[in-house]
Amino acid sequence: MCGRYALHSHPQVVALAFGLAMPPEFAPRFNIAPLSDVLIVRAGADGEPQAAITRWGLLPRWAKDPKLAAKLNNARAETVAEKPSFRDAFRRRRCLVPANGFYEWRAEGGRKQPYYIRPADGELFAFAGLWERWDRPQGPLETCAILTTDANQRMQAIHDRMPVILPPANYAQWLDCRPANDVTGLLRPCASGSIETYRVGPEVNNARNDRPELIDPRS
């Protein structure tokens, strides 16, 4: 799964990594939790990458209660094409979710020990994501979800699931939502050597804590 992540790169670095014409506007975050406003990259009307701010927790167009979003921050890659909550967005509204790293927890000594997972070589991840537009009286609300898959060998020591992490060579294919473009082959764990993991402090357990020290290694 993916329940917390960080994005703190300079906006110009994000723009360069994702081919954006303009640096996106976002504040650096070190403990992003579901239902937060988050940065995504999607295809614009001209097909070029476009930045947008959406709320993390997908609301299908047919949803009656906005509270449903709290249960839909992740979409399982194995069932995303069939699940009513996600299948339309999977076909028509795919996105990338930029991140510098994410957190996962493992039971150790009777408590949950948080770990930080980041790129082994490079600065940014791109999680495979979906986005939706939900109509409401005060105006549309755009929301998103992150796809998850089985853990690779390195992650298995911490958790049995992980986000779908796409390499830059596959960004354009993932964002291309034309019917003939089959992206199911992209829904797999990244290579174990592409990530590194280490323990961090328990302060990250509280989503209200959001500061650079959260990603510092702890013994």
Tell me about this structure:
The protein has one domain (4-215): SOS response associated peptidase-like (hypothetical protein yedk fold, Alpha-Beta Complex), CATH 3.90.1680.10. The protein is mainly beta and 219 residues long. The protein is 11% helix and 35% strand. It has helices at 11-18, 87-92, 153-156, 171-175, and strands at residues 4-7, 29-32, 37-43, 49-56, 74-76, 94-99, 101-108, 111-119, 125-134, 141-150, 161-163, 195-199. It is globular and about 45 Å long. The protein is built from four helices and twelve strands. Strands 3, 4, 5, 6, 9, 10 and 11 form a seven-stranded mixed β-sheet that branches. The chain has a five-stranded antiparallel β-sheet with strand order 2-1-7-8-12, with no helix packed on it.
Provide the CATH superfamily: SOS response associated peptidase-like
Largest sheet geometry? 7 strands, mixed
Query: What count of structural domains?
Result: 1
Structural class: mainly beta
Radius of gyration over all CA atoms, rounded: 17 Å
Number of distinct helices: 4
Order of helices and strands: EHEEEEHEEEEEHEHE
* Poorly predicted regions: none
Beta-strand residue percentage: 35-45%
